[in-house]
Design brief:
Layout (H helix, E strand, L loop, with lengths): L21 E5 L7 E3 L6 E5 L5 E4 L4 E6 L4 E6 L3 E5 L1 E9 L15 E6 L9 E6 L3 E8 L2 E10 L6 E8 L4 E6 L2 E6 L5 E3 L2 E5 L7 E2 L2 E2 L4 E10 L42 E12 L2 E9 L9 E7 L5 E3 L14 E8 L2 H4 L4 E7 L4 E8 L7 E3 L18 E8 L2 E10 L2 E10 L2 E2 L5 E4 L3 H4 L2 E9 L5 E8 L8 E7 L5 E3 L7 E2 L11 E8 L2 E8 L5 H7 L1 E2 L1 E2 L3 E5 L5 E5 L7 E13 L2 E3 L7 E9 L4 E8 L5 E6 L4 E5 L16 E5 L9 E9 L2 E6 L3 E6 L9 E7 L3 E11 L21 E6 L4 E7 L10 E5 L2 E5 L1
Parallel strand pairs: 21-41
Antiparallel strand pairs: 1-20, 2-3, 3-6, 4-5, 5-20, 6-17, 7-16, 8-13, 8-20, 9-10, 9-17, 10-11, 11-12, 13-14, 14-15, 18-19, 21-22, 22-23, 23-24, 25-26, 26-27, 27-28, 29-30, 30-31, 31-32, 31-33, 34-35, 35-36, 36-37, 36-38, 39-40, 40-42, 40-43, 43-44, 45-56, 46-55, 47-52, 47-56, 48-49, 48-55, ...
Keywords: Hydrolase
Organism: Lepagella muris
Protein name: Glycosyl hydrolase
């Protein structure tokens, strides 16, 4: 998945030659995991969770920093003797967002981009940036701090050529960005720098949330230089980058990751929470989502943006909305995309939850252009100034709907400890905030204490479908739905058969399964997809570099009883490759291998006749275990079993590897069951009879866990058809290589990396490179090796 950059005008490289001496120069091109100061010849290791990544830079190659683990600590010698009065420091930097710095706390603190500042000894200098994008050059002159603070944020998605010029003789220090002066400070006296560390990508001081470093830079750093003179602005003002700022996550980062889904929507790296705000424009679906690009953990959420032509091949776009205003500085939380002739002139607009450090409000944004890439926040924000009186402080996730001549926004909240939704009516250019309620639950145990992501959709039969994801029900977090009508005042009235809510998922409790679906009507289809949390510990997300994904898209409708019907989105057939098997009118006794189909990305489709015996599919089958999904007629249960599979365990104490659901209706003997199963890395999407659906996360760890079979238990089962396909990207992931005569040299010095790219051993003999390692897959001399 690539991040498409905002295209800037083409620029040419030019400059003025100067005679000043460069005392340190880091071009940032990586060789053998190190960068080099070409002046001193000193080499420095690029540290981090992933193999060091070079991308086209402003000058040659730039180094990509991941936002939570990447850093370089270079050793500098005596650059400036005592009594020095001039220096110039420059670096090219590009970033998609700003560092976290603190969790849930407003702060003026900044973290180093590139710095050798030594607070204890009151010496050094460097570039810094804060969580709000404000940036600075900090230094010590004569033992006193000389700081140049820039109040405007550092521009994102473009190169910034930061140059600081200190001239004590002229009593002035100046900071430039792309040749323009952005700040200055007086300075007098002299300084020295006898040696120390140059920190790139992270500050000397560390601050962590769990395993995640918060004082960390996300983006590109290139061509760091230090001179022992004060360069004239003419010498660098006309310099331009050789390449556009390419902030893609390099494909190599996850190319060998067997667990990462390929077809399910998710950001290229980092954290995602709910997806929301689907829209279709110019041949593309746009899907927005909660995003932390700085790492796979929840903090200071932005509106991420991915697009797709078919809902199964995704491209990440630049961040749509970022915190930055006083009313949303803590985060831009969930909401929706809507268009309305009266309110937006028919153009799509964003509604989102704007959060500062005191309360949540509702804000609006409009696109700058038809491609929906860049957005502008409304000057009238916030459009709803906060929760109505008498409700919980929890107030978030606006959703727009129109009923006849009236337009409304509903927002999730809580009243008297039970989930509810507020109702806001559009009147005379403003939104009401009177405390009127759209719909409220009846009990905490059933309906929870608070409703997240409320959604109201008019279905084709004229009924309205209301969904919400309650917190703290008797079975924890899961998504519920009601059907009914909208009265003349905009309130939801459940139908007689929907007085009690129903579950969206076949299998879901305690935050497992599809949650908080985004629902969108297009081409006479109601399309839904939602987050399916991975439920892994944060230490595992730290290693993986990503957290969570979305379900495959589903097509929703209501049957004549007002019950939700779910089937696979029709376009998912585009995922099928030519590698497939097909059997007609077959009898299954015990196990039947589906030879010709295997892998981590497979679709299985069976039309089974219901009898006395259980039946289903086995997948992720390897030498040490397997996963199964089966229907058990005697109990009318769907059972997904991972207890025989070696995996990263994510469900202890909840499911313990066995996911069960009694089907809402018993299947009659002799009737047909259609079982459609999709597997994609670490997610399983299941559809039964094109009526019921569920999505489950599983993380198989064995490299050979890729076999697929159909089976029966307790007797013979008849199937009118059995089909299976390798999905199109299934052939991309590689197998595991063992040393052979051509590749194995026992005396060769090699490096050993984890499958996620973390350096495990450096400069060891090939003959004992894997000795003592835990079971798993490793990269040895750029080849995958399985250790058992």
């Amino acid at each position: 998945m690539k991040i498409r950059q905002i295209i800037l005008p083409s620029l040419l490289l030019s400059g003025v030659t100067v005679s000043a001496d460069i005392v340190a120069h880091f071009p940032m091109d990586v060789k053998d995991g190190e960068i080099t100061d070409v002046v001193s010849g000193q080499k420095s290791t690029v540290e981090g969770n992933f193999v060091p990544e070079n991308l086209p830079g402003a000058v040659g190659e730039a180094l990509r920093f991941d936002g939570y683990t990447s850093k370089v600590t270079a050793v500098l010698g005596e650059l400036f003797p005592a009594g020095s009065t001039q220096l110039t420091m420059s670096a090219w930097v590009a970033l998609p967002c700003y560092p976290i710095i603190q969790i849930d706390t407003d702060t003026k603190e900044q973290t180093a981009i590139v710095s050798c500042l030594d607070e204890e000894n009151k010496t050094g200098f460097g570039f810094y940036v804060g969580f709000d994008g404000k940036y600075s050059f900090r230094s010590y002159i004569g033992g006193w701090p000389v700081d140049i603070q820039v109040d405007s944020p550092l521009p994102v998605y473009q190169w910034n050529h930061l140059v600081a010029v200190v001239d004590c003789a002229a009593k002035k220090a100046v900071l430039y960005n792309n040749g323009e002066e952005v700040g200055s400070s007086k300075c007098t006296g002299s300084f020295g720098f006898a040696g120390g560390n140059l920190y790139m990508g992270q500050s000397k001081a560390s601050r962590k949330s769990g395993p995640f470093e918060l004082m960390s830079f996300n983006g590109l750093i290139d061509d760091v230089k230090i001179w022992n003179e004060a360069l004239p602005v003419e010498s660098f003002a006309s310099e331009r980058p050789e390449n556009l700022a390419n902030l893609d996550i390099p494909a190599s980062r996850f190319s060998e990751d067997l667990l990462r889904p390929h077809f399910h929507g998710m950001p290229a790296a980092g954290w995602t929470n709910e997806c929301h705000g689907m829209w279709y424009s110019d041949g593309k679906y746009h899907l927005f989502f909660q995003k932390n690009a700085d790492g796979p953990y929840m903090a200071r959420l932005h509106w991420g943006h991915i697009t797709s032509e078919n809902l199964c091949e995704w491209q990440e776009e630049p961040i749509a909305i970022a915190p930055g205003e006083s009313y949303d500085i803590k985060g831009c939380w969930s909401g929706c995309v809507f268009a309305d002739d009266e309110i937006t002139g028919g153009e799509p607009n964003i509604l989102y939850t704007a959060v500062d450090y005191a309360k949540a409000t509702i804000a609006q944004a409009a696109p700058k252009s038809e491609d929906l890439i860049e957005w502008t926040k409304s000057p009238r924000n916030p459009i709803i100034s906060g929760r109505p009186q008498g409700l919980s402080d929890d107030f978030r996730d606006p959703y727009f709907f129109r009923n006849g001549d009236n337009a409304y926004i509903i927002v999730g909240s809580s009243k008297n400890g039970v989930g509810t939704t507020t109702l806001h009516k559009y009147q005379g250019g403003n939104w009401s905030n009177t405390g009127d309620l759209f719909f409220t639950g009846t009990s905490v145990g059933q309906d929870g204490k608070f409703w997240e992501m409320p959604n109201i959709t008019e279905m084709s039969d004229g009924n309205w479908l209301f969904t919400a994801t309650p917190l703290e029900t008797l079975t924890g977090v899961h998504t519920l739905y009601w059907t009914g009508s909208i009265d003349g005042e905009g309130h939801f009235v459940p139908s007689s058969n929907s007085a009690t809510p129903k579950n969206v998922e076949l299998i879901s409790k305690d935050g497992f399964g599809l949650l908080s679906p985004t629902i969108y009507k297009h081409d006479e289809k109601v399309i839904a997809l939602g987050i399916v949390p991975d439920k892994l510990p944060s230490s595992t997300n730290w290693k993986l570099g990503w957290a969570h994904c979305y379900s495959l898209p589903r097509e929703w409708s209501l049957n004549s009883e007002g019950v939700l019907v779910q089937k696979p989105y029709e376009g998912l057939k585009d995922m099928r490759s030519d590698a497939n098997v097909s059997f007609k009118d077959c009898k299954i006794s015990d196990v039947m291998p589906l030879d010709g189909v295997s892998g981590r990305r497979v679709e299985m489709l069976g039309q089974f006749q219901v009898g006395a015996s259980a039946f289903g599919f086995k997948f992720f089958k390897g030498a040490t275990g397997e996963a199964t999904i089966k229907y058990v007629p005697s109990s009318n249960e769907l059972v997904i079993d991972f207890t025989q599979l070696r995996r990263l365990v994510n469900d202890n104490g909840v499911y313990d590897g066995i996911y069960r659901a009694v089907l809402p209706e018993r299947l009659a003997e002799g009737s047909e069951m259609k079982m459609n199963v999709f597997i994609d890395g670490s997610i399983v999407d299941v559809f039964i009879n094109d009526r019921w659906a569920t999505s489950v996360r599983v993380f198989p760890t064995e490299a050979d866990a890729d076999g697929v079979e159909v089976f029966s238990e307790g007797g013979e089962v008849h199937a009118s058809s059995i089909d299976a396909w390798v999905l199109k990207s299934g052939s991309i992931h590689g197998g595991v290589s063992l040393p052979d005569a051509d590749s194995y040299n026992p005396s060769k010095i090699v490096d050993v990396y984890s499958i996620s790219g973390q350096l495990i051993r450096k400069g060891v003999l090939h003959s004992n490179a894997i000795d003592g390692l835990e079971n798993g897959i490793y990269l040895v001399d750029n080849r995958k090796v399985l250790v058992r």
